[in-house]
Design goal:
Layout (H helix, E strand, L loop, with lengths): L5 E12 L8 E7 L2 E7 L26 E6 L6 H6 L4 E4 L25 E2 L13 H11 L5 E11 L18 E4 L22 E6 L8 E9 L9
Parallel strand pairs: 3-8
Antiparallel strand pairs: 1-2, 1-5, 1-7, 2-3, 4-6, 4-10, 7-8, 7-9, 9-10
Length: 236
Amino acid sequence: MPIPNYGLLTGAVINAIPYKSGADHYQIELSAAGSLYRIAVDVYSAKKGSARHYSPQGATTWDLDREVLFYKDENYNHPILDTLLAAANGLTAAAQLPHDLLLDYLRYEPALFPIDQMQPIPPTNASGGGGDLNDEIDPWIQKALNNPAARLFAFGSSWDDSVSGHPDPTVYWNPNPSLGIHDIHMNQGDSGSEAQNNGSWQDGALFLQFTGAAPATAVWIAMFFRFANQSIKLPS
């Protein structure tokens, strides 16, 4: 069964909370089409048995290691950008997206990025060693913050607390958005409890566009995420 509610969220960055130990994902607040949204981005690696968030099945710990792999292109150029530019602000469900805006790390042509160049983020150990992606993501999010020349595009699985509760009771902002999107990473090739969400053409990613004085001077930043246990071999 694929991830629920795959889609694209597009809007303006108005707030951000970098990941801190115990504070869950990197959180981004977006203003889009008159509504507020929260984007939750996996930026740290977790070991088997560590606390788990966003589990509709009610699991409280991970049943396998979740080592984050990351790739960032700070001068991104790909045919998908022409289609992205036409995307409406707000949340667009997969059924309303053109096929060009259904992401697939393994099947998209031309390839979205060199998947074999993704870099691992080591998990935090007992002595505090390890890392996260704050330093990779935060400078660009801060540049986009309240910047009328910036636009963020997030692909993933959306939620609406007014329809079905999202399992994160934390209040991040006031008012706290009841709408949001997560699973901002590859959503196929998984094992363990996550295997039930495997599917094609439903991968997550972040794109940032910074416009210049002319369209030709626009700068695009692309960020791609997956987990080391996710297979990158196409099913036979």
